[in-house]
Amino acid sequence: QQQVKQSPQSLIVQKGGISIINCAYENTAFDYFPWYQQFPGKGPALLIAIRPDVSEKKEGRFTISFNKSAKQFSLHIMDSQPGDSATYFCAASNNAGNNRKLIWGLGTSLAVNP
Amino acid sequence: DTGVSQNPRHKITKRGQNVTFRCDPISEHNRLYWYRQTLGQGPEFLTYFQNEAQLEKSRLLSDRFSAERPKGSFSTLEIQRTEQGDSAMYLCASSANRVGQGNTGELFFGEGSRLTVL
User: Fold this and answer.
1) Residues A55-77: tens digit of each pLDDT
2) Contact B46/A at CB under 8 A
3) Rounded to an integer, what distance in angstroms lies between the CA atom of residue B28 and that of residue B47?
4) How confident is the model at residue A94, as a pLDDT?
5) How far apart are CA A78 and CA A58, in angstroms?
6) How confident is the model at residue B89 (pLDDT cuts 50, 70, 90)?
C-alpha cells in the first residue's frame, strides 16, 4: 500500500523550461509535505516544504502548489537548469506519536537538457 | 557543523558476514533516523531514536538488524548474517525537536553507506 503516489517516474525538460512533478496522498492526517532532491551517490537534501494551511510556497525557482481538497501537491521548477538534473522525492508526514516518520513517493528522475 | 556523517561510505561483504554502520548526527539534534534505499526507490523507514531511546522499529527491521544510540549522540546499525537482499544504501538522518511544538519533520540526511552483499 503506497500512501504517497508520485508521477511521472521520469521527466526530460529543455534548459529554461518548467519541470512539474506531482504527488497525491491518501492520509488526511498528513500535515507536512517536503520535497527532497537527491544526486547520484548522495543522500536526499531538503529542497522545499509546505504545510496544509497554505496553497503555495515559493523559494527561488522552486514552487510547491498544494490542493488540500484533492489531496495533491506538486513541485514546479521554473527556468530549469542542467544542474537541476537529479531525482526528486515528495514525502508526507504527520505528528502522530510525535514521530515525524516520512512516507516517501517513489521518486522522479529529472534530466534537463542543455 | 559539517552535517550528518556516515561511515563507511561503501562496504562489500560476503553473505553471512556481519556489518556495522555508524552515523554521527548534527550536534544537538536529538532525533535520529535510519532509512534504507534501494535503486529506483524512495527511502524506507527502518527505525528512529529520540536521544538514546529507540522509539519505533519498522517491520522491515528483522531480528538480524539492530540499532543503538548508547549516549544519545552517534548511532550504529548492525546487520548480522547478511543476505544478498540486504544490499542497499543505508541512510541516516537527524532532526531537531522543538520542545512544545513537536518535530518540524525537517530531516537532514547523511550521504549514506552503500552495502553490497556478494
Assistant:
1) 999 999 999 999 999 999 999 99
2) no
3) 19
4) 79
5) 11
6) very high
Per CB-CB distance under 8 Å, the chain A contacts of B112 are: 42-43
CB-based burial of residue B29 (10 Å sphere; 0-12 exposed, 13-18 middle, 19+ buried)? middle
* B8/B28 Cα distance (integer angstroms): 23
Task: State which H helix or E strand residue B36 sits in.
Answer: strand B31-37
C-alpha cell at A21: 512533478
Alpha-carbon torsion (B16, B13, B76, B36), positive or negative: negative
A1 has a chain B CB within 8 A of its CB: no
Size of interface A-B (CB pairs under 8 A): 64
For A84-114, write each residue's pLDDT tens digit.
999 999 999 876 555 567 889 999 999 999 9
The C-alpha cell at A43 is: 543522500
**Would the CB atoms of B105 and A89 count as touching at under 8 Å?**
no
Amino acid at B67: A
Distance between CA atoms of A19 and A55, rounded to whole angstroms? 19
Question: In which order are the strands placed within the sheet that holds A72-77?
Answer: A4-7, A19-25, A72-77, A62-67, A56-59
**Mean pLDDT for all residues in chain A:** 91
Per-residue pLDDT for A53 more than 70? yes
